[in-house]
Fold each of these.
Amino acid sequence: MTIPPMNEVVPPEVRERLDRLVDELPYNEEIPRRSGDVAFNHAWEIRAFAIATAMHDDGAFDWPEFQGELICSIQAWESDNDTTAGWSYYDRWMEALERLLQAKGMLDTAELDRRTAEVLSTPANSHHHPPAREPVAVVPPRAGEGRPNE
Amino acid sequence: MTTPAEAPNSGGHTDGFPSQGPHPVAGTFPRSDAEVAARVKAMESILVEKNLIASDAIDYMSSVFENEVGPHLGAKATARAWVDPEFKLLLLADATAACHQIDIGGIQGEEMIVLENTEDVHNIVVCTLCSCYPWPVLGLPPNWYKYPAYRARTVRDPRGVMAEFGFDPGPDVEVKVWDSSAELRYWVLPRRPEGTEGWGEEELAALVTRDSLIGLTDVSVPE
């Protein structure tokens, strides 16, 4: 993939294609929206959404297959829960995606459980640099060039 | 809208949907956001490792919606700081606590520091190593935030990077570049634009852009 310019804007046709996928989803009225557009409340929801749409786009599965799993997941949740407390469309989304990928032999639930536990037990900073409490560069007024803080 | 019964059957399945076994779902699925977020991350890492999907492809799909979560929370905190001096003091002293006060959560163990832009100082944020980003406040990072070009150039030539985004902080202003890490994440409190005296918080928040909270631009009133 070539790196697009920094101020890249996603082409409208990609957005439209995704909107069409969303329109075909079951329990469409349950999808969180703001001003009519699909809305997300957590970063992981976008990531889960992106994994499913990217894999479908890549030919890993047909959209109706995912729809079918999503219907099952939502119906099962509804039959097991009397209230709307705890309801989350994207929890069901993740469950549907997991089950579909497992059925396709692409993902093993036990492996996913193990990896999830690893993620949860990994300290937030383990792969990163320590906190930098001073600026890494300061460009003084009326100067064009950076002066890295050594 | 498509109801479940009418869901299109464009796939190759004779019965419309893949065959379903019993669904033993109750009680086994993770409930907390931290758990499900970890599960999403784990799933992505496994799929990428197995070459079933490219990380770039997921990034690309995410980028379509990257503005849908987050920046509005940073904008809300910014607008509150502009109208409420006490909140501003708290935001600059302890951003995590200030954000909690207006129901913006984060990940435990992560510190946030808010850098105030002034007449004399303009702040810009980068993660020189990867793409550490205050996502509870700003949402997902834009794709370019992860590019080596942004990471390296922002340190070397922050004014040049800002110019690419159409912004010039002015020759009299000192520019400070801050390096975000996983446990210490920076974001910028932009200056309140002139001509917004008496504006309400919601009106003000609508002016605040994601790029201004990273420090690439300032906040301006549309003409």
Amino acid sequence: MKLKPKLAISDSGFIFDPSTGESYSLNEEGLIIVQFLKEGKNEEEIKEHFLNEYDIDETTFSRSYLDFISMLKHFNLIEHE
Amino acid sequence: MEKKTFERPVIKKVQIGMPSKFGLKSEYAPIKEIDGIPVKNLIEQYGSPLYVISEQTIRETYTEAYKAFSTRYPKVQFAWSYKTNYLDAVCKIFHQEGSWAEVVSGFEYEKALNNGVPGNKIIFNGPYKTREDLIKAIENNSFIHIDHYDEYYLLIDLAEELNIRPKVAVRINMDTGIYPQWSRFGFNYENGEAWEIIQRILISNKLDLVGLHCHIGTYIMVPWAYANAMYKLIDLFLGVEKKYNKHLQYIDIGGGFASKNTLKGAYLPGTDTCPTFDQYADAITSVIINSSISIEHLPVLILETGRALIDDAGYLLGTIHATKRLPDGKNSLITDLGVNLLFTSFWYDHKITPAQEFGPYTEETVVYGPLCMNIDVIREYVQLPPLKKGDHFVISRIGAYNMTQWMQFITYRPNVVLIDTNKNTHIIRKAETINNFNNLEQTPEHLKKIE
Amino acid sequence: MNKKLCIAVSGLNATDNPGPGIPVARSLRESEAFSDAKIIGLAYENLEPGIYMPGIVNKTYQVPYPSVGSENLLQRIEYIHEQENIQVIIPNFDAELHAFITNEKRLNDKGIATFLPTLQQYEERHKANLPAFGKKHNVLVPKSITIASANDIHKIRKEFVYPVLIKGKFYDAYVAFNEEQALMHFNKISSKWGVPVIVQEFIRGTEVNVIALGDGKGNTYAAVPMRKLYITDKGKAWSGISIDDDKLLKLTYQIIDSTKWRGGMELELIKTNDNKYYLLEINPRIPAWVYFAVGVGQNIPETLVKLALNMPAEPFTTYNVGTMFIRYSWDLIVPMEQFQILSTTGELEKN
């Protein structure tokens, strides 16, 4: 799973896609996932972080994670492999 | 180390025209408890979905409404509109506060009697009263509000048959300057029909005409419409005084006051536009006070307000059953309560509030009920924080009509709980079970076996 | 007046359906009394041009739409007040007026002045109440009815001869030449602004407008009549000219005197060929072409702020006749960061 390479991600939770001119906003959890993806972390590593830091069970996290990734795909922010 | 609360990760496109996310934060402060009792505990104990009624709110709202009228007018009588919510416990709170009963069917009439309301404190309205209903009402000395000529002639017959002079009032419809004009109930003022029936009653002398009644519509946002109605009723009242030298006992202005719910299609929310009881009271009472009716013959002012007295006291608690991403990227929630329990969602944009803490981020959401029916939508579009499976939420202001117009469709109706003024909870209507339905059904012998 | 004032204005949307916020800010910037005031912009949307234009507002705060409830709006205003110490708010967005009018006292208690019509003045001039308004204040108005349902479109035929005007509660007006068009406009307007929708007699003649300011006691502090020279397809003035029309000015004084109007207003009238004036609408706020009034000699926002703060103010009595205004569009170059800061924090500093 790789993010599009040129996305500009700000610490305030704002993504700008220079190839389309679209902007997106994220909540805290979304921002963390996007930053991890940018660093090249995989789903397991991201999951581990959330299970350690947040009061959340594995199923609920995976469910939310999948939904979030589907939205990244929906907005064409994931690189096609 | 304490772990952080997890909210579903969300991304959304920044668009113009979208309300900014921070601006919505205060709109959605969570409702974690009702009258001091945690929503979580209520659901744990009584299940989800769950109707909750606050006795405290009912009594406070009634007091506020009663004060608004009684401080402006000396003779005020409320009559609880059974169709708005006829759970016995709810009715009895209103009766304890001093309300009479206002019923529109034989079923409701029986309910009122069962609740211990004396017959002479029951107002019987509506277009469909059967012969049996009317006999009962006449024998119990109730007030019968005549809706049409067939009813008038039936009453004349019954008066002779029973040798009792029934106490009646005439339901009047009229143009009060608002849309829509309710013209199907009662007798029309403008075309002279109302005056004609009044005269017939007085001349025949078989019925005891004691009052005038009107009910101009529902969810009336403009108090002046009531003032217009009152002018016309007083015109008839004075006409009776002048021509027949008779002083009618009461004027029943009906109900129809709005609640703070927001109607679909309205731009400003109901919390901003709903008139106060004081505004309604001012419009209505000033017309009587300023009329030429003499002080000693001022009629009792009867109010049949339903919605405005009970809506705020009712809550519907629910649980997110699933979240689902729609093909267009929009988020949807499948909840355990639908239009079967929230009939009013057909005309209100009900306020849905999560029952737990959440961040400032919201997303565009569709809220569905549990029914396998495309029309089962509670909100077509609402900005909500990212709720997840198992989260609870509260729909406020649902006390009116939902517990009478609910549908028993493919599932059971849930518990209804009352929180009393000492913060004790009581089930006032038990959740339905398969037995309730088995008790009513009978299978013919030849259908008992299906092999 | 050495203390630097802080004045908040909304309606920074100088688009093809412009709000008055930018011209109001500009008028204050060019005024004698308040040229050094700090001007705070209140924006509903993140692309309102006034947020990004140089020399208009010092700082913008995003505010929630009135449709989410006045309480949210008021809380946001109070938060901004804590940061900025606002002395005067000039609301310029129709849908927010109700909230500001009904919360006048709450704002006053916090030290924020407004200068708006009373709720009664605001309500009685509603388009739906125009016939009663005309009767009460002795002004000719076109015949109109309100309809709340598409089922009532057929009523138009009974009451009017087509064409008729179909108008929304807050905005929008379209001419309908037949029932199909009436239905189409009804659907469009009711879905956007809700019901009722107003159906109004179409009066033939020339449209004339007056911008005016009343002090709430019956006195007119400013009045400039204008005829629109060019109208956009949204019905907005793109160009106009100041006219010398005593009868129209007298009518304006009469309306302000009779209503005891407080605050800015715009009168929209039709002057018929036989020299009669039909009042079509009263906009209960400063209109978007207010800078034109400044340009012909009447700085209405400046006087409005003075009246709001109980400062001495002189009524304007003259203006230059035969001066024109022409609107134009202008492409502003905006760095992405500004949009980003506003969209994520809801605030943007701009000096």
